[in-house]
Amino acid sequence: MLRLQSAARASLCLCGRQTQKLSSVLWSRPFSVSNESDVSMQQKVLFTAKKPEKPAEDTKKAIRHATMLMAGGMGSAFMGMAPFASPNFFMIGLLAAMVQVHFGYGYMQRIYWTQRRRYVLKMERTEDASGVVTVTVNCDAGVTRKLKLTDEAPPGSEPSLKDIIEKGGTFMFIDKKAGEIHDPEMLDTLLQSDRGIREEEVTAEPVMEETKEQSLRIVQQFKDLTREHLDKIPEQDNKSSPQEGLRQLERTAQIVGSGCMVGGLLIWALGDWSAQAAIRAASENYKPQATLSPEGSDPPQMHGQNNTRVYKRLSWSRNFIVPLLEFMHFDSVMKMWLRREIEREREKVCDQPLKETGHWIGTSVRKGAASNSANWAPALGVAAAATAVAANRRQSRLGRRAVGERSEAARQPKTSRSAVTEKLVTSIDPSAGPQGTYQVGIDFKNWLQSAEEELEVDGLRVEGHIPAWLRGHLVHAGPAKFEFGDDEFVDWVDGQAMLYRLKIGGDGDCQYKNRWLDTWNHRMHREAGRIAVRETCSRPSLKNFWERFMYLFSPPNNENGNLHISQIAGSRCVSMSVGSACLEFELDNMNTLGKVPFDDELVEGGPLIFHAEPHVDKDTGEWVTCAIQLRISPEDMGLKPEYVVFSVMPDTSKTPGAPVQRRLIRRISTEYPSPVHTIALTKKYIVMIQIPYPLNWDGMLNAEARWLMNGVYEGNLNDYNTWQPERPTTIRIINRITGEETQTFETDPFFFFHIINSFEEAGGPSGEDEIVNLDVVCYNEPPVGFPLRQARSGDVEDWRGGGGEVRRFAMNIRTGECTCTGWPDNCFDEPKINPKVDGIRHKYSWGVIDDNGMLRLTKQDHDSQEVWKWEGQDVSRELPWQPVFVPEPYSNEEDAGAILSFVRDQPTGDTFCVVLDSKTMQEQARIHFPKGHHVPLHGHGTFICGGV
């Protein structure tokens, strides 16, 4: 299988080299100028051409043929290899093939846009009052080149305009038959001018997933063009045509793709034939009622059909796989196969049957190997012995939990390591709504309708008194557009992002402004009038099967930062979401600048899946976050997920749109990557929680397969992960300076979104131990999700939004011990603390609770366990969300400040911002947004002081 994958990669590399060579030809194709008599002229506009549709269609056709052939060949090859490995290994191989084809398709798409950018659509000659002649060349795909000409021929190595036109070396290509020209003599005189280029300006609009910087980088080389560059262009290239280049691309694609297809079908046929032969041989030799014998070759009858499957595979290995792998020298494949079989059985049986099964497998494989080849006996013997030892040492987690863990937990006190409350923290009774729905007080149907307008309103109506010290910008992001045409998104996180800014100035002068986050995704949806590109949980509405198939290989371009606002490099505002790129915008005018251009080694190895909430150090301004990177191992082509912990220092470029350098802190390999919504910082450590909620590969692939077959993509964000309570929750303590993983703690499983705070203190009998405390809002299981369409229809059967239990984990760095204490009577979420106590011991926190079906703003005292609520709230109609704490300047009191929250008035649909005294939770002011203006359910926000 490794050789097959290597062959596939080599084929793609060959195709890549051919297309790269072709790409350089396309960039440098020249054209000849002739005096044709069937053209005429205008003084200002010298040349106006039609868009070159024919070459574009030829290129699309070549790309389509190449992708379909390579995808079909690789898919059939990996399907043919399925009998050689477990189904999961096959799925990983197929995923690797899809990734390879995806990158090949993306490379050919870039060639397509290279071809488009070569065509001149318009040429214009202007002359200013001083006699300076400027030639403006507008090419397809948004490329513009302005050439200011000199009066004389250029000296030295600088080319003249005539050199560029006659010898090529530029993206200019004029097909006179495609346009209209007036006065050919003036055109030819201009194009054959010996004048040099005094000054040159090149601009390019980004296409596909490009940024503006990448687009400019592509065309920047033409500003440095010299005569030597032009002389290096081969004569045969000058004689070629763009159409000939497209034919070369199509022929290369057909050869590579056809080879993949034929080879894949042959392997498929061979694999199917060998599987049938192995099953027949196993059926003849298998004895259903055989008993376990240490020296015999019959399987133990302890697992029913599982043993039948294992026996069939082992019989097959003795008769077919071992000789084949011996011939191909694939010892690693056999070891991997044996290890996988032991692992699969280990999860299904208890300890003693597992040991016997491991012993029998080792004996059987050693005998089978010896009977086929003396060379294979030692290698397989070592592999079988290693798996048998692993079976003895690593007991089944399921078996251990079923037999011994419950009795052990009953003997231990609740304050011991990994002790947690068994109380269901989200015990909400969904009984008050019509027809059994949970609609006690939250009107999801209207709260989740799309926003339609952008506003900028000064002089907002203010009730009450805003504290004189409260000055700045409250900025939120949130999903606000949930449908395009007749298409509706599947999950709330797919809604297109909108930014909301409330500016609080002096003397109670307040301004409201909202703007769409101008992303590539949103533009594509809007222009198509439907869901046109992939979102986190939604797919385009494509009626044709082949269109959906081709779309599987299109490059993802996740631009939809709709959940969190943060500041990077001290002052640059960014908006982020789950799996989205980091998008920058300007605070003053709310204009979107695009993706943050990260320029470092972290871009290698695959895209980073960002998480929603980064953490900013209150003292240093360091911006710290964690992401998942799905790397493809070059050794075995397996998927190697990693957590990547990194930061951005505050001294990086503060210029909006400038490249940003990240500092890699730690890479953590994991077999079960799960989402990390946020992290915590202490003075010395980064605290990261890995919950037993790994990515559900089968669920994601099945959803893609259903969409491919019938065009319907269903589910929500919860379907992308699987809750596995048999696994522990892991808390990792990482040194912020060295990146060393100082200590790792395991606790009973819990789910979380938000960390309240983490801090260090001295502990232990002598007070010399280092204790890291972590306050987390914990759930015993993931909250129940519901599809967006169901929520917008008002049919929500069970919404567990009441919050989780506050638990404090005290972790001893030296001894590795961890104790947990809970606060089961107080269930809340969306916690906020005073930023002044971030990373040190805190006393208070603020958040949101579900109080009998309505959301309430609360304050918690973590020492006395007292709780205060916003008592002035009309709970029958007012719905607050996502509080933001603003500390009072020059005050050392932890609870001195203000709580800001957008509040929805449900009967009218209007929104206002409430200002609460964070010490007493008494209402100080209400800032009313324009009447009738709809603000949908939004994400996290931040308060940026000053600037007003």
TrEMBL record:
<comment type="similarity">
    <text>Belongs to the carotenoid oxygenase family.</text>
</comment>
<keyword id="KW-0479">Metal-binding</keyword>
<feature type="region of interest" description="Disordered">
    <location>
        <begin position="395"/>
        <end position="432"/>
    </location>
</feature>
<dbReference type="GO" id="GO:0016121">
    <property type="term" value="P:carotene catabolic process"/>
</dbReference>
<feature type="binding site">
    <location>
        <position position="938"/>
    </location>
    <ligand>
        <name>Fe cation</name>
    </ligand>
</feature>
<keyword id="KW-0472">Membrane</keyword>
<feature type="binding site">
    <location>
        <position position="754"/>
    </location>
    <ligand>
        <name>Fe cation</name>
    </ligand>
</feature>
<feature type="transmembrane region" description="Helical">
    <location>
        <begin position="88"/>
        <end position="108"/>
    </location>
</feature>
<dbReference type="InterPro" id="IPR004294">
    <property type="entry name" value="Carotenoid_Oase"/>
</dbReference>
<keyword id="KW-1133">Transmembrane helix</keyword>
<dbReference type="GO" id="GO:0046872">
    <property type="term" value="F:metal ion binding"/>
</dbReference>
<keyword id="KW-0560">Oxidoreductase</keyword>
<dbReference type="Pfam" id="PF03055">
    <property type="entry name" value="RPE65"/>
</dbReference>
<keyword id="KW-0408">Iron</keyword>
<feature type="compositionally biased region" description="Basic and acidic residues">
    <location>
        <begin position="402"/>
        <end position="411"/>
    </location>
</feature>
<feature type="binding site">
    <location>
        <position position="677"/>
    </location>
    <ligand>
        <name>Fe cation</name>
    </ligand>
</feature>
<keyword id="KW-0812">Transmembrane</keyword>
<protein>
    <submittedName>
        <fullName>Bco2 protein</fullName>
    </submittedName>
</protein>
<dbReference type="GO" id="GO:0010436">
    <property type="term" value="F:carotenoid dioxygenase activity"/>
</dbReference>
